[in-house]
Specification:
The chain is an alpha+beta fold and 264 residues long. It has a single domain, classed as Hypothetical protein, similar to alpha- acetolactate decarboxylase, domain 2 (60s Ribosomal Protein L30, Chain: A), CATH 3.30.1330.80. The chain is built from 6 helices and 14 strands. The strands form 3 sheets. A 7-stranded mixed sheet has the order 6-5-4-3-8-1-14. Strands 9, 10, 11, 12 and 13 form a 5-stranded antiparallel sheet that branches. Strands 2-7 form a two-stranded antiparallel ribbon. Strand 5 and strand 6 form a beta hairpin. The longest helix is centred in the first third of the chain and has 22 residues. The chain is globular and about 50 Å long. The relative contact order is 0.22. The protein binds zinc ion. The site of zinc ion (ZN) has 5 residues, from strand 12.
Length: 264
Amino acid sequence: MNRSTFAIAGFILIAALLGIALVTTAPVPGDTETVFQVSTIDALLAGVYEGSSTVAEVKEHGDLGLGTLDALDGEMIVVDGTVYQVKDDGSVAVVTDTMTTPFVVVTWFSPDITSEITGPLNLTELEAQLNSTFPLQNLFYAIRIDGSFSSVTARSVPAQEKPYPPLVEAVKNQSVFEYTDMQGTIVGFWSPAFVEGINVPGYHFHVISDDRTKGGHLLDCSIDHAVVQIDTTPNFFLNLPPEGDFHALDLGSDRGDEVEQVER
Ligand code: ZN
């Protein structure tokens, strides 16, 4: 081997080693500066409901977050490291580690900003107030709001059967819950506009009651009084399904209108 082929072989060896390092590098457990996400919102919109990560894996990457479960079986909310499932009959259960998720967003919650709000404040007013507290645009913010709510409107979705319909079809059978005088926690994220196709641009909130008997994907609320905690999160890690329906999809189309339909 002459000098130049030796150099090339060395380069290939280093590239191979780097390649291995790249596929095995994930946020270290306890990393408070990273949003960890499984799959993409557009894949969920397209009907990729088969779970690709276990709840045990998700819990390594955060103690606060939201998502759904295999087969789109309800809304998931992660609070203080416990993963809950709000089913479409309104019941709430703790999710076991072996269950899987087709879409979830979590982070290790470490608040940078804490404030108190006094209502009445509806969801639109809450979002406007939060907008003014973010120190920088174009980063991710994890948000936790603990308080008393005179009303909460939340929804959940029924488990789907294969062949899975798109999410706009699945949510036509959603259950909407109207709760009054709830003590609870709203958990969510504000994501920058450039995540379109990957996550939900703007706000996405789930909610759960203090007694862990009520909850869902938050559609509206009236806040009496609450403590708001915000965690600025500059890193984003995307964990894509290693196999399955995800890879048969054309994910090039703009599904922005569908996001509005299913999330708002
Ligand atoms: Zn949701």
